[in-house]
Protein 1
Amino acid sequence: MPRPPAPVLACPSLASGPLVSPAAGARVREATWGRRAGDRVRASAPGSPEPAAEGAPSRAASLRTNRYDLEARAGHLDEVLQFAPYLALTHTVVVGAVLLLFWSEAHRTYLLILFGSVAGPITLAAIGARRYRRRRLGERDVVTGHRLAALFSLILGLAWASMPLMILPTAGTQDQTFVVAIGAGLMATTYTFGSLAHLGLVYSAPIALGSLAALFLVGGAANGWLAMLMGVYSAFVAFTAGRMGRLSEQRIIDRVRVGEQNETISLLLHDFEASTSDWLWETDPLGRLQHVSERIGQVAGEDPAILHEAPFAALFLGVRKPRQMTPEIAEILALVAERKAFRERVVEVTIGGLTRWWRLSGRPITDGGETFLGFRGVGSDITDTRQSEARIAYLASYDPLTGLANRTQFQGVATQLCARAQTGGEACALLYLDLDGFKFVNDTFGHALGDVLLVRVAQRLTGTVPPQGLVSRLGGDEFAILLPGGDEDALTELALRLIAALSTPYTLDGVQVEIGASVGLALAPRDAHSPEGLLSKADLALYRAKATGRGKVRVFSPDLEATMRLRRELEVDLKRAVAQGEFSLHYQPLVGLEDGRVRTFEALLRWTRGAGGPVSPADFVPVAEASGLITEIGRWVLMQACREAARWPDDIRLAVNLSPIQFRNTDLVADVTQALEASGLRPERLEIEVTESVFFEMNATTIANLNELRALGIRVALDDFGTGYSSLSYLIRFPVDKIKIDRSFIKDMDSRPECLAIIEAILTLARKLSITVTAEGVETREQAQMLRASRCDDIQGFLFSPARPADEIPHLIASLPVRFGEIFPLLPLMFRRAPA
């Protein structure tokens, strides 16, 4: 029997056809594929496996081929056994007729033997066939069945072959014709063996040979012709039976293949429904649901058994708890009622109190003609997709952390308001808000608490801004508020209320924090006609507000633009100055009030801007900080100042101002160490001056830099002391070696008693904490005398000397004690005499 070809993927036409025919294929697949195939694999590998020959099929392919072979052989046998009862009845009738026709004293014994030889085996075969077709088949059962069928065929063929040999020689002419006719008729039953053509040959060959032998034994012309016809007839039967057997065999093989393909399709569909959100649905011609799977029951929230035979509408509207009809559902039901195909229809349903979205497609099915068989289609639960799309749409317009409008939505609304302001004259305002101190909270307490703080800020903003306003988070700690109207006074009042609301302390996870806010205000169409322009103008106003101190509101004015233009020009020139080395250092002395000697020189940066002349540090240092150039400039200052200080007497220190930006740089300690090593200056002679903003914006890097600098022996001085509201708390959190009283107290100390009281309080506090005190901006004898009387340690100011170039330092060291003696004439003469 030829091997079946390898299976191919079933096409829809095959999938929709009949499944594996009679029970044989299913029984064999159930019993053999699950049980016998494994037995064969185990039996074939008793130890180390033999190496496979080149080109030999894999084990999986071998099992697949064996499965085809076994199922095909079972199908062949099953098809033959279907005719066993009819064949038994036919042979029983024929052998009975022979018994009646030829009953005589001469043939009585033989006829009884013939009857038993035919009726007995054929009856046993019919009974065995019935039992065989009822049991679960294994490989051994199929092989045994084929062998028994061959044996019964041979017995039956031999029994009938004896009839012409025993009866024909003694029969008359008429009886001879009967015998030949009976033999020819019996040979015709070969066709009942179907695909098992070899069984037909085993059965018919003895009958043909027996008939031919009997005719030749009788002899005669007539019998010769009968023998020739019998031979032709036998050959024809053998040929046609073989041909029909091969066709039947191919049909059975195809049926096995289709059965496997249907199984594969069924498994794929099952896996498809189990692993995806899709599911298949089907109705009958009356619109009732058919073949309801577990998956459909899950998505519909109903028992599949209840949905089976239920109207198609029950899939959407429910059975036990009816749900609401929607226009989309009604449209699908109408299409089904009209037997019209539909595709990718989305409906919203409520399942178990939750909103779900389904996408359905379906088409009517027919029998190939006009007969309507129902609908088939596929459905998908696209709830996750819809929710993701909604989330994406939300994120396109809203900030995910605070829920405020994001920059995209701000841009859209600002475009509309600006267009309305330009064409219709309806003014609008932009309040650009930046949080003061947020970075310190974020760095100190962590980003998680910083996020919580931003959410609370958003809540306070939305609670303060009028309903017609749009509050947006543009990024980080920057917020923008768009409002219709152009009343500058009312808008300024609103900005102050916002600042007050945001400055109220926050309690977050048991931690109390305080921040502030600064606001820049711009109006359209007065200040700008586009969202970009409006934001730019508000940004300039915000920059000025922050420059003048925290918690301020600044309204845009044209002079701010001019200032910004000058600032940009200054930044360009500043970059050139760094590249071309246009900076220099001057040094201002700090004089001890105990003996008039110079204790320290503070290095002060000077810049001569080409033909523009000198530029004040108050103008270019903020630009350097904003542009990031301050780090490179600060590195140069450290290197130059340390080299100069290394040439001074050993008891005179060098003071260098560092920007808060430099303290946030992880390379600061390396830069300081490199300057000390390159110059040979001892760390104890270097004094780093910082402002309160360093402590206000303190983070992990800043703290690490301060600790490492103090560990090296470098002194830390707090500059401009007394101008910040939190200075005392920072002295407790991080001890310093020196504080420098701001010049604003010194200037009015001789005319305002409260200034002197503050200075004396600072001096008392410093003595308690063992901190040295320097008074800045001392310009008169009276100020110096009052400070000495209050036991201040050092003074700095024009009274003794402004900042001077490095080449004048030796002269200052020698002359300042004499100048000190002139200011304090009652001191010993030694302080008024210049050293030789």
Note: The longest helix spans residues 221-275.
Protein 2
Amino acid sequence: MKRFMAVIMSVLLTSALMVPASAQEQKASEKPKDLWSALKPLDTIISFLNTGAHPDDERSDLLAYLSRGKGVRTASLIANRGEGGQNEIGNELGNALGIIRSRELIEASKVTGVTVYHLSRKPSDEIYDFGFSKSKEETLAKWGEQTAYERVIRMIRTYRPDIVMPSFLDVDTEHGHHRTMNYLTVKAYQDAADPSVFPEQLKEGLKPWAIKKLYLPSDQKNATTSFEIGMMDDVYGKTYPQIGEESRFLHKSQGMGQDIPAAPRTINLKLEKSRVGTPGKEQTLFDQIPYDFKEYAGTVNDKRVKKNLVKLQEEFEGMIEEYPNRAAIAEDVYPAIKQTEKLEKLVKNSSLPTETKSDLLFRLDRKEKQLMDLAAEASKIDVRVDLNQPVLVQGGSARVTVTVQNNGKQTLKHVMPALHLPTGWKQVGHVPKTKLKRGQSQKFTYGIKVAKNASYYQPYDPSVISASISYKVHGTTAQKTYEPEQTAAVLPDVSVKNDPESLVVNTADLKDSIQVKVEAKNNTAGKETAVLHLNAPEGWNVTNNDQEITFQKKGEVQNATFTVDLPHSVKEDDYTLKPEVRVNGKQLSTSVQDISYPHIGTFYYLYDAGTKATAFPLHFDAGKKIGYVESGFDSVSDKLRAVGMNVVSLEKGKLESADLSQFDTIVVGIRAYLSREDLLQNNSKLLDFVKNGGHLVVQYHKPEDKWEAEKSAPYKLVIGSPSIRWRVTDENAKVTVTKPEHPLFNTPNKITDSDWDHWVQERGLYYTSDWDDHFETFVSMADPGEKPFTGGILMADYGKGSYLYTNLVWYRQIQNNVPGGYRIFTNLIDYSKEQ
């Protein structure tokens, strides 16, 4: 009967949506959401896996319906960390952005009640977001098809889903990463059940797993399964699409989430493959799959097992009917735990077929864990794990306090925390078991000693410290594991970071020396003395090396500036200036980037310290004054200043009052029309600057970045949509300069084919699809086999000045020290109509 409730609910949807939102919210506020989210999973034994490529690829509305609405054990398997994307909340890119996006996905999935898994295991993993791709062939080549596929199979055999659905189709209008995850998911449907595929996994204890159904996204015409998810949930006071959007708001770095009204929404899916019947029209997503233990009992021959499965499910149903009576549920959950444990023993000792026994034991184990979570929630047991210092060092010490508060009505007996620490770490002290009556709390304090060879913090690993709390109620033992409120991180005794981390050695105007500042931060408990050393390339001389620094306390930062004398001539190449700190008998050279935002918390990115120095000739007019309208999404202005250009940042609030006539050129940062309301208000002022003889360079924008095709530029300029079709993703795509004699390619730098070499990630994003005849085109480029784009650089005279729009990804090139990126962009901003 339960499987047909979705059909019934769709009939009731219209009347449910007629209830005012305020009434729904008031009704929902009377029902404890946390209790329901722990209770509802007892309703079914079905599991569902959604696969995607990037954080934010999850089908949030559907997952909210399955998890929150139906109680289905639901997970997302995401390939990479989104490192190649853009960032709308800061300037972190690459691995640092990947950490942000991974944490955003975890926080978003807490809203929908979904467990998150990734194929990517560490920063700079093989399965990396290398930017937009138009083909799965390119993606598989870069990820390594065998590596990616082994991890997909491993995850399926670990999670053991009944139903699997990729978020996207394998069609040529889709992102290559999306197509790849579809391809791997569909292929894995058959191979995950085949013991000859990756047999080494079986030796590790995994078992082949036969997915029951594989669904693909579909339109209504081709769907075999269509169901309504737009109904209002009485507990949450929202529809499932609204819950999904609530979760998507947490993908802040990607600008996700929108307020949507309560409205019908139909999910259309196509049953692509099935082991439980012939693919065809279905009444529900769950047809032919045992929905709960009662239906599962119908598939087993052992009478005792059958009887106890039915009895257990009836216990679950009884608790669900008791909601929202917390006290009643708290009384019933502990006998249900004991009953589940007894049933597990019965199954182990039964004569059921091996495959059935393995499957049933797995489902019972999952259900026991859900009961443990429900017990802690129903009994209102609040646990907090705190560290006196979350930043740890090898061989260091810390104190862990576990606070257990009994806010329920039952007495908790034999309350005992157990710390879980990595191998080689030591727990200092022993805490006896205790009893907690209603309203009582107890603090358990432990000392810990970090192993001298402890691994440094890895942002995608589970917490190095956790605590499980075990207790007894009515003679039944229950337990649950908790992680610290703060991020526990083993960091180097002293971390070092160069400033700058990249620089240009201009061989066209070679200086006698350069300066590098090294910032050192003490992560040890107290006073420390260290020596800073800067390793330089052969022939480069550090005149004031081996500087001693002294720290007085943990967290203190000390700086040392090194002068590096350059040789009389420097070959065009990349060089590294590597800092090293000598402390406590160690030689350390690791940078630590703190990543902290209110919606995700604080995390760290550890990487090899150093300065990348790139030597090449760069000509520019140091007398020209350049204004830069900052968007917050790039650091190009800093890079231009560092090479000696006279760049003034026009930050928020400065544009309206600034005298723009002082500038020769004004540059607008990427997507500034999105992030700068004052830019929208003063756009006419910028156009007047051009009309009066100035040169304006505008970098790329998305169509939705408040860009107005008829107003933002002096003449019509349309940004292509959908964006997937208007980009060149191959960073090595051939570029044809159509007007090589133009000053843009001759002054002040003579541009050659080599200036288009060694680009990173892509050539251009969000190409223009249409423009006024006043605009002149200069370059042509395309991904292999595609029609070339000619609008990568567009320029038009306007009044006495000139307006240039370019969607090429200069910021990635400049921020990665690509010589040609610097040289061509310098020409673009150096241009004047008088040339």
Note: The first strand starts at residue 47 and ends at 52.
Protein 3
Amino acid sequence: MKKLFCLLMSILLITSLLPPISLAQEQSDADVELWNVVKPLDTTVTFLNTGAHPDDERSDLLAYLSRGLGVKTASLIANRGEGGQNAIGNELGNALGIIRSNEMIEAAKVNGVKAYHLSETTSDAIYDFGFSKSPDETLEKWGEDVVYERLIKFIRTYQPDIVMPSFENVVSQHGHHRLMAILSERAFKDAADPNVFPEQLKNGLKPWQIKKFYLPVNAATAATTSIEIGDLDPIYGMSYPQLGEASRYLHKSQGMGNDIPVAPRKSHLKLIHSAVETGSTDLFAGVPYDFHAWADIIPAANVSAKLDTLQNELEGIIKLYPDREAILPKSQKALGDVQKLITSTKSAKLDAGIKNDLLHKLELKVEQLQQVSFVASDLAVDMEIGSYVLTQGEQTQVKVKISNEGKQKIQHIEAALLTSENWKHEGETQVKHLKPGESKTVTFNVTVPSDAEYYQPYGDAVIKAQLTFKENGVKTTSVIDLDNTVSVLPELSVTPDPVNITVNTANVQDEIPATVKVKNYAKGAKKATVSLNLPKGWTSKPATSEVTFTERYEEREVSFTLVPPKDISQGNFTIAAIAKTDGKSLNTTVQEIKYDHINDSYFMYPSNINGVAFELLKPDNLKVGYIDSGFDTIADSLLNAGFDITKITPEELKNGNLSQYDTIVAGIRSTLGRPDVLQNNTRLLEYVENGGHLVMQYVTSGDPWNRGAFTPPYPLTIGSPSIEWRVTDENAKVTVTKPEHPLFNYPNKIGDSDWDNWVQERALYFPSAWDTNYETFVSMADPGEAPFEGGILMANYGKGTFLYTNLVFYRQINAQVPGGYRIFTNLISYGSNN
């Protein structure tokens, strides 16, 4: 119900913005649930939109095709969006990918689209590794044998008539987008070639010829087909672009969705390849649109006539909308007719390719007619489970309540439970029949295997219900999901804090405080012994700690004091947090991901503290104020590394004594994340003018900056479009143009090794122009491109200095890259040295 609620709220949000006309009455009378399943009976066409990341889908066009025309439509997305930023929480990396994947699924439901991903696990090679300018780099990282094999497999499984990537392969595009355009176009030929990935054919798949391949273009002059998609749909009371935006609202972690009026809008497409004869500007020209069109190309007269009859039946069902009572017997009859037609088609003498295509279309109609029958039956299914969180070996109950909310008797009802392999369940399945207003609840006892696989965020649901009934001697089957995720979790979650430790070999800390939070997911009481598996030479006080629980979801926190050896060697180390219970050693952190617009999810990873030891010199008297934008964790990392650092609150920024700080650092995108930075622009410049050192990390060209919102001491312009103003190769050569400057000598002597082992990228949002008062210090470029000189800019202003850097120090410090720490320390220490 949560998902349905979010879907309806997204639609209502935009509907509320429409002008108060009579369409509101039309929408209130519409049986949207029934129309969503009836309309697809109108056509046999299938359409596939491919993209790289969640939110790449062409939402407005997909809404038009799916909701407006009934075309079976899918979005196939390569990765999970793990490399982006999070607008609703602090989840990043795989945890963010889980959020974005679920948002993609929920967004697609608004438009009647099915969402799929090529990435299969949280450790998948098809990973959002950050912005890439190059499809070659993307293919190298993802692996052609992985990404292309899965793409071909998906196309042979889904069997789309028309394929359209979301983006063209042009240099102004993201490398991930470009690669999906390239591979999708290659697949036009290769998916039909039995010599391409022949092992797929041994596993039951067949070659599939995509009929037409389109690319989206920006103007009608470049298009072969321009489709008006801005019309108002009388069922939904919204235009298709508005439906598209309603779906995009569910990409909340990316801040998607816009309020738009009803207005004409055309989708411009360019036909690149066609396997059918087409001289028309019609998107579907040459592609059989329905079974009448299929009847025209099938030489077998007995099959052809039956196809014409079937299409007449399907159109008759659509005409009966919104009469559920009248639709059910007609839908069941059509379902039986399709099943008979499948049998006769299999034995008919037809070209193998045509037979495969036709059987696919008929099987699709079986699926769609069962959906029509289930909705028209007015059977409501509610599922309850003893606990959505389970542990290995646990027993629980699942109750399935079936209610007849319609006006007709439904007969031969059976309810079954579908569970993962090796799960045990038992219970009554026969419901027999339900008269209008009657209901029955069936109960299943479920046992989780003692070796059950833990929750996989991209895996299939472990428990579903299956409902069948018969009408006119024809059986209809429907599978129903629970309202939320059923998850098998470790009995205890173990979460250490901090997760990163930095040991400064120049001044090794005497003690390092750490805590371990333990959460009980087991049913009932539980005891555990918590300890830390330490590197050689380390000790902890205490060595172990006992925790007890009386019920599920209870938490306990224990404290440790870590004592590192004074002669610690430079390098990386790991400290494992462990909870021992009932003979098991548990070393897993369960990160809960819970938001109202998606199902509950979890990301599990080893409960380790990741440490690094290196020499980090810093001024003893350096006092730093940090304006935390909420988009980075640099302040916390520097605090853990022993810096005297204070997070400046909005009140302090407005009225406090800023002169107490040698340096003030503004977090990334501070003008967006902290509106008070804009409001106190003058105070910050006065701080610099009076002798302070202000370090400003990057802003984007779209953030409030240098436009009367926030003004740096001298003009400085952020480059646009942003794709052209970044260095995405984390190993790109960096040249320090002024190696003798204090920035690279105090307090740490910066050398080539400090630029090693960087992650994801070097820099984002380079300045494109700056005043001559700014001094430049570094030069860097992606391979084959002209170098950027503005990665670190500094200018004297009054008695102080203003430094701007777009280098991604937040990524390096979060990844515990020693060079990231050392260079950033020098940049913020200039205030003390000056």
Note: The two ends are 61 Å apart (CA to CA).
